[in-house]
Amino acid sequence: MPRAAEVTGSACSPVLVARSRSAVSPCTRTTRSVACWPSRRCRSPPAVAAGAVAAVPVAVAPPVAADPRAAAVAVVAAVVGAAAVAEPPSRLGVGIGWRPEIDRTVARLPGVDWVEVIAENLHAHELPASLSDLRARGVPVLPHAVSLSLGGAEVLDTHRVEHLAAVAAALDAPMVSDHVCFVRAGGLDAGHLMPLPRTRTALDVLVANVTLAQSILGLPFALENIAAMLEWPDAEMSEAEFLGELTERTGCLLIVDVANLYANALNLGSDPVRFLDEIPLERIAYVHVAGGESIGGVYHDTHAHPVPPAVLELLGELRSRTVPPGALLERDDRYPTDGELAAELAAIRKVLDGS
Prior knowledge:
The protein is of the alpha/beta class. The chain has helices at about 50-55, 65-80, 105-110, 130-135, 160-170, 200-215, 240-250, 260-270, 270-280, 310-320, 340-350, and strands at about 95, 115-120, 140-145, 175-180, 180-185, 190-195, 220-225, 255, 285-290, 295, 300, 325-330. The longest helix is centred in the middle third of the chain and has 18 residues, at about 200-215.
């Protein structure tokens, strides 16, 4: 999961929604060891107390059940109809997140089969020269959005979807993606990718928005699991069940971010191995891999540190169940040397190849 889109230069989009990792929400949970993964003795994820949920400001309010929104869900379902089932790519290989700060590094790194770019950082009619060069070399460039707020209770902002579609067309991209989250409520931006309540009502809203977005995009659409600092109470299904039903009802694909699974295991006590056991493996488009750091007993998915061995172990856990079409290294800050990036890409490839 990329950092908040870093806006620099003329290639930045006016529809940007920032998602900063430098202003992380406070959390009192302590970091726990993940040694319990093999034995599956991890305790259940703690839920946020009801009082704490009531105190959340409108900027981070979750989707709510309301008659107008329920009616909108029904209208979208009736108008758009059943979504076509997207087919995962047959083979992507190992990729890296393209960022303006390392655009020339990406161009010269060995072992880069494809790249992913933050869609909100681009203008469809003014692509950076380094991206155009990659496309001319035949390197696939996949747009990854951060601002659609697909799980939000507000009506989907179709202008943002159209921007994503335009960027994809300019890059001749075979697919596009975003996240299972919301970022706006009450006309305000949360500044982060916020987790959804895992309820039927929230799933219905998400399905309606994803289905509408797919009708505009006209391309395979993949959605990523996020790292979270809290879980809403009264969950009606596990995260894997939530994502599984989402794929069944919309035909969308999944991006499995194993770094986010690692973060949630440490901060929420969730079981990443069980997640991998329960998700529909055949719907995986590709995998995200990234590093982070622990601060004050809380693990932060910074994308600014080396990939921990435990994250590569989770990639290996996934690889033991299925061969994902691709895996991508995300790095958004404190950029290391070319050699260090190349070594991380090689480590990812080694796991992906099963060697």
